[in-house]
Amino acid sequence: MKQFIFYILLFVSVSGWAQVKFEAEASREKLGVNERLRVDFTMNQDGDNFNPPDFKGFTVIGGPNQSISQSFTNGRMSFQKKYSYFLQPNGRGNFKIGQAEVEIEGQTYKTPFIDIEVTAAVDTPTEGRNPEIIAADNIHLVAEISNRNPYLNEGISVRYKLYFSPEITVRQWYPKDNPTYADFWSQDIDIKHLSVKEDLYRGDPYQYVVIRETVLYPQKTGKLKIEPLSLTVPVNVPSDRRDIFGRRLYETIERTVSSNNQTIDVKALPSEGKPANFTGAVGSFNFKVTNTKDVLDATESLQIKLQVSGNGNLKLFQLPKLNLPSSLEVYEPEHLENVNTNLNGMYGNISDNYTVVPQLKGKYPINPVSFSYFDPRTETYKTLTSEEILLNVENGPINNAAQVTSTTSDGNTKQAVASAPSQFKYIQLDANLKPIDRSPFFKSVGFWTGVVMPLLLIPIGIVTGKKRKSYLADAANNTSKKADKLARKYLSEAKKNLGDQKQFYEALERALHNYLKAKLSIKTGEMSKDKIKALLAERGVEQETISAFIGILESCEFARYTPTSNVGMQQDYNKAKTTISELDKQW
After folding, report:
1. Of 459 and 232, which is predicted with more confidence?
2. Does the predicted model carry a pTM greater than 0.90?
């Protein structure tokens, strides 16, 4: 009888353990539109191909968070695997949480529907202190656009601000998806020092950091989209736990934030009043034509410079051409650009420098040159015209045709000019050619050398290849050892200060700068992030490694303003050591 009861109990317990359970549970069945909902999908056996419902009527603000637990109690093993989602209602009404699916031992299981009622907002929302919800509520990425209705080729700026509330701390961020600006000419502005400022976000006090500034010049008319910027941000969220001194402990949540899609409406430039010589310049400009000499001798050179200066799309239009008399020899102009970019767009000057050489004696007037541009502030076209330049060539061959002039239909005069005889040379007809050697090549010394030499080179190539392979293996090993040694050398001071945030990040930043000074031979004052990117790219460093190096520098800057944990410092130290080693391997 005892054995019979034992087997019955064993059968019941095994049957109960073997029964598959796949359930869905909501944290509440009724909530306000300003509250949050947690939904857990739990299974008692490990399953594959979990497929959540579409959560119609809700926005997923956290999850899926996965947890697995196993226990063995009184001879019975239990297993639980859970997927958790955090939902924000989109509006009031009655909704159904759909069925989730999972495969367990080849069978498909589904959860039942869950009915949820969403009411009007409640005075005191209750949703607990879930880290995912706290992170989602307290960090936002905003794109601010200076002008949403610009003209074609008129500069606008986009400033990306990362807002975070005082309840959390943010140490650093990593680009996850950068906008391409397909219909724009774009230029990123180097932000030399990151600074934390305070402002209101949707009526609440927040801190923010300007993480990127970009200037755009639209190249098409109509409605153009500006793609969002996405970042991966490790967020330190306060937990309910405290250390032995009573200080609140923080939990790090990795959060992805994105700016919204933005649309601007680009206006076409007006056709009314457009000058014939307009080449697309948009902005506010000055124009001048200067020459280095007024009096000179024939065959002596001078320079004539056409220069446009001001603020606008300086790199996106062509300068007018310089027209000269035919007796003045002119070379292709040298184009020079001295252009910088800030939030107001491009500013500086561009110029074409012409080298001119007169061939004959005489006086040569150079007609005025006109430059036209569109001013978006006044919404009108403007034309600037230079003064006439008179060149006096005193010594040289006389231009016999200098006094012969004619008048064209538009009132301008043409002057016939005699060419200098020295400009032309005759072709030498006596080539002074000699016959080549006609001796046969077949069976000659050169013939047999060409046949035998490739056969002799085969064993030499095999031996050389083996030696080269061995050398490369040793070189790679030596390079790796050298890289690790150099990383330890520069980062030793930072490692000593792990745990002291201020001293650690100062030492880490100093180590990165000293490394670059040793490798690039540049001064500390020249270490802007744009210049570092350009120099590393020139030396063939991979873009991923460059981004990692710049990210560490930004972490050092940002750590001056926000607290961080020992774990975060250790992560930055390990990342810096790995990055320096990678730089030495690639460089």
Report:
1. 232
2. no
